[in-house]
Write a structure and sequence with these properties.
It contains 17 helices and 8 strands. It is an alpha/beta fold and about 350 residues long. Helix 8 (about 165-170) packs parallel to helix 10, helix 12 packs antiparallel against helix 17 and helix 13 (about 245-270) packs across helix 14.
């Protein structure tokens, strides 16, 4: 069985599986999902907890020995296995399948991994494991949903905020939910907010008390441009430049995205619907919304024009153009976001 993490609470009210696989890349949400599951297990009498870290040298037979050994105090146990990679090798699969063929009823086994690629979810070995328990997918909070997530998190801590304060807090912790939660907890402590003493904060509180935790990467840049959010895309690009990223590396990822959009648009022009076309080209679920947003704005010739403009960045980096490489890259990003370039010369001859 497979569910999203926000449905775990409802599932736990009706059943407890012998095996849970929690997969995701957002540290805070994975931690909170685990806390929710562990807490429920303890309520059901699983009072002992053992944690195994499965690095590249881990002997998976250790899991079988741990799961099948008698507890010192004859207690029911939570056995948590953490992997730092989403790749489950053959040795791990064999041991997991062997154990789950006849799981110890006094154990709940929890496997924690980074997010799995869609191709892994369709494999025979994965489906055999999924059939033995519950696969919990932990999705990150989309950038457009982040203000609502922050408001809900504030309310949980006895706080409320006006629109300007929420917008500033969103901007300062962009994409970093762990930092957002830490800053909200700090606001709760410093204002004295609680369920009985609800406090409303404004922009001044955020400006004076919240650090800037903005986290930038090329995927954030691409999503902002695809959504048509030129202001945010430029902010992310400036952050990447400040972090000493190389223009050519960013160009390669942008060009790859443009080629993907062109290929999807070609399938759509041939009669396929957008969902089928994206699935055929392997677009990840989390990436579907920004891709759809871009496809609503651009036809294939427009995307091809933007891709030809990528050559200007390459020429600028190699000193074969008078345009600054970062200006040329900004032109490309703004074009993908739907705005005209800041200087002439976006489209290559």
């Amino acid at each position: 069985m497979r569910i999203n993490s926000d449905r775990l609470g409802g599932h736990l009210q009706t059943s407890l599986q012998p095996f849970y696989w929690i997969a995701g890349d957002e540290t805070l949400l994975v931690m909170e999902t685990l806390d929710q599951l562990r807490g429920h297990c303890r309520q059901q009498g699983f009072s002992e907890w053992e944690q195994l870290f499965a690095d590249r040298y881990f002997d998976w037979q250790t899991l079988l020995q741990t799961a099948n050994s008698m507890s010192l105090f004859a207690e029911r146990r939570i056995i948590e296995v953490r992997l730092n990679t989403a790749k489950v090798d053959e040795a791990a699969r064999a041991v997991l399948q062997k154990y789950l063929a006849s799981p110890n009823p006094d154990n709940v086994l929890i496997l924690v991994t980074p997010k799995l690629e869609s191709a892994s979810l369709n494999t025979k070995w994965f489906k055999s494991l999924e059939a033995c328990g519950l696969f919990v997918q932990v999705w990150p909070v989309d950038v457009k949903a982040l203000p609502g997530w922050i408001e809900a998190r504030l309310a949980r801590h006895g706080l409320s905020a006006d629109a300007e304060a929420v917008a500033l807090l969103t901007d300062r912790v962009e994409g970093n939910l762990l930092a957002a939660n830490q800053e909200i907890e700090k606001l709760r402590i410093l204002t004295g907010a609680s369920a009985e003493n609800r406090i409303r904060i404004g922009q001044k509180h955020v400006m004076s008390l919240v650090a800037d935790h903005s986290r930038f990467n090329v995927f954030t840049l691409i999503d902002a441009a695809l959504y048509g959010d030129a202001q945010r895309a430029q902010k992310v690009l400036d952050g990447l430049r400040a972090d000493s990223n190389e223009p050519l590396a960013l160009l390669a990822m942008l060009a790859r995205e443009l080629r993907l959009l062109i290929e999807i648009r070609a399938l759509m022009d041939g009669g396929q619907d957008v969902s089928s076309a994206m699935q055929k080209k392997g677009v990840r679920r989390i990436h579907e919304a920004p891709v759809k947003a871009a496809l609503r704005r651009f036809q294939r010739p427009q995307l091809e024009d933007i891709l030809r403009g990528a050559r200007q960045v390459d020429l600028a980096v190699k000193g074969m153009s008078p345009v600054n490489p970062w200006t040329a890259l900004s032109n490309l990003v703004l074009a993908l976001a739907g705005l005209p370039p800041v200087v002439a010369g976006l489209t290559a001859e």
